[in-house]
Specification:
This protein is mainly α. It contains 5 helices and 2 strands; from the N terminus they run ααββααα. A two-stranded antiparallel sheet has the order 1-2. A hairpin with a 2-residue loop joins β1 (about 55-60) and β2. α3 (about 65-80) crosses α4 (about 85-95). The termini are far apart. The relative contact order is 0.03.
Length: about 150
Amino acid sequence: MDDNDDYEVGYKRPPKTTRFKKGQCANPTGRRGKKQKPAPQDNSDRAIIERLSEELIEHNGRMITVREAELLVIRAKALKGDLKAIQMWQALREKLAPKNEKRGGVLLVPCSVPLDEWEASTARQQAPFREQTFEKFSSGSKEDER
């Protein structure tokens, strides 16, 4: 006998032909999602200025931000002699200019120089800087002892 002959169709027993196949989803398109609410915008003065300064405008055939355009206007006025613009431009340059810090560098050692000669020449070159550093630290420690 075949399995289909013994199977009774009835309450909670659907026909085998109408059942879901293995791996088949009952609702392939899924439930309708909620509408996404737009992110709340910060309407403070600072946030508005930030948003506006990031907008792009065309200037002489190229796209620049509003902030760049403002800096160009300040610079142009400063070059024409506007005192307030000169002061603003100087303040911006001082604020944004890199600090004159002494940084380490790369030391290239020519292979034709013997090690003893190289050590002697580097000691001569570094001596003034080492003395300045020593004086700076030694003078600070004497004041702390007093």
